[in-house]
């Protein structure tokens, strides 16, 4: 896939590197702007309070399939249910919310895990396949919450993830298992 990542910081830079390693054509843009024309998917990884100014600087965004990975720590911008809704209003294509509950500082440790860690995501139907593919190609297992109406829930999880991060746990992976699933997939005997 041709992937334009907006933001080349901890999240955008690392995801672009991981997708390039997985065989995609990924380019990361930043506040100096750029052109997303021809991209199969646009990934937004800039501060949640910089969406309007950040996206206004990028040409060729109209109607693109989009994945928003951003979080915001302050008040939500009035007029939008979530950052992902603001991104969708600006770009106008099918939109997913993903990666905002994963810590960029431990992306490189993903490959050493015995099972892919989880990535909670929400998506419009027409963005789901692309989002799932790119979650898997970043080394994670997609956990679908539902359509984009679940984006506010995902964004609200920053309160939980940052509390755990600042506490005894530190940056962490997560996954959700059906009963017996982990033992079956790893070929382990139950305790
Ligand atoms: N770090 C994490 O573990 C993590 C996890 C999940 C979600 N997130 C969210 O993902 C987003 C990116 O986080 P990050 O850790 O990658 O941040 P970061 O390392 O500080 O990088 C931010 C990127 O956004 C760009 N940027 C900042 N202001 C901009 C603007 N006004 N217009 C255009 N681009 C702008 C920066 O451009 P320059 O390179 O030009 O400075 C940089 O490339 C944030 O919304 C964050 O809350 C972070």
Short account of what is shown:
Helix content is 32%, strand content 19%. It is of the alpha/beta class. The model has no long low-confidence stretch (mean pLDDT 96).
Descriptive terms for the model:
191 residues, binds NADP nicotinamide-adenine-dinucleotide phosphate, alpha/beta, Rossmann fold, two-stranded parallel ribbon, 7-stranded mixed sheet
Characterize the structure shown.
The protein has 191 residues and is α/β, with parallel strands linked by helices. It has one domain: Rossmann fold (3-Layer(aba) Sandwich). The protein is 32% helix and 19% strand. The chain is built from 7 helices and 9 strands; from the N terminus they run E-H-E-E-E-H-E-E-H-E-E-H-E-H-H-H. It has helices at 10-21, 51-56, 83-91, 125-137, 151-156, 158-166, 181-186, and strands spanning 2-6, 25-29, 34-35, 41-44, 58-59, 66-68, 95-98, 118-123, 141-146. The strands form 2 sheets. Strands 2-1-4-6-7-8-9 form a 7-stranded mixed beta sheet, sandwiched between helices. Strands 3-5 form a two-stranded parallel ribbon. Strand 8 (118-123), helix 4 and strand 9 form a beta-alpha-beta unit. The longest helix is centred in the last third of the chain and has 13 residues, at 125-137. The protein starts with a strand and ends in a 5-residue tail after the last helix. The model has no long low-confidence stretch (mean pLDDT 96). The site of NADP nicotinamide-adenine-dinucleotide phosphate has 24 residues, from helix 1 and helix 2.
């Amino acid at each position: 896939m041709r992937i334009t990542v907006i933001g080349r910081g901890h999240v955008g830079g690392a995801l672009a590197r991981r997708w390039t390693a997985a065989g995609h054509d990924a380019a990361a843009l930043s506040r100096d702007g750029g052109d997303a024309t021809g991209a199969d998917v646009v990934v937004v990884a800039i501060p949640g309070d910089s969406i309007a100014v950040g996206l206004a600087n990028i040409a060729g965004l109209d109607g693109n399939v989009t994945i928003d990975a951003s979080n915001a720590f302050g008040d939500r911008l009035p007029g939008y249910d979530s950052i992902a809704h603001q991104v969708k209003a600006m770009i106008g294509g099918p939109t997913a919310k993903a990666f905002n509950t994963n810590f960029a500082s431990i992306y490189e440790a993903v490959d050493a895990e015995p099972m892919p860690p989880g990535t909670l995501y929400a998506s419009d139907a027409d963005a789901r396949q692309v989002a799932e593919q790119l979650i898997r190609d970043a080394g994670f297992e997609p956990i679908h919450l539902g359509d984009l109406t679940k984006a506010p829930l995902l964004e609200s999880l920053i309160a939980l993830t940052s509390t755990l991060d600042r506490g005894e746990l530190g940056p962490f992976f997560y996954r959700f298992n059906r009963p017996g699933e982990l033992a079956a997939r790893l070929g382990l005997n139950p305790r």
